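Hi R.,

Here's the chain you asked about this morning:
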Amino acid sequence: MSDFRPLSAQFSVAPQIGIEDVAEAKAQGFALVINNRPDGEEPAAPQGEQIWTACAAEGLAYAAIPIGHAGFSHAQIDALDKLLASATGPILAYCRSGTRSAHLWALARARAGDDVGGIVDAAAKAGYDLSGLRPMLDALSG
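And the predicted structure, written out as C-alpha cells:
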C-alpha cells in the first residue's frame, strides 16, 4: 500500500516504495521519482535499477540522489535543486522511512529562502520531525 506524504503541492516523500507503488505514483499524477536510498542498503528492498525500470515502463522520470551514512552535502542539495527546477510535474522522493528525503527537501527549500517555520510545519504534518535539523535550516536560510 502506497504511503505518499505531501510536503508541498509539488513534492511528496515516502518510505521505501515497491514496484507496485510506481504505477500508483503515476496514477496520482507524479512525473518524477527520486531515489534517496543507496543501492545495497537493504538487499531485500527493490534496488534503484528495478525502480528505474518500473518508472520507465510507466512513463515516469527517475533520478537517484543517494544519501548514505555520511549525511547531506551541498552537492546533493544542488542535485535536488536542478530536479526541482526542471520538473514537469509533481515529484515523489523516497528512502527507507522518508526521513532523508524530507530532510533533503527541507535543506533545499531553506537554502532557496522559503520560510523555515513553514518548512518545519509541512514536514510535521507529513510525520517528520525536523527539530534536530532546525539549526542547519536556519543557517541555510540566512
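The first strand starts at residue 5 and ends at 6.

Let me know if you need anything else.
M.
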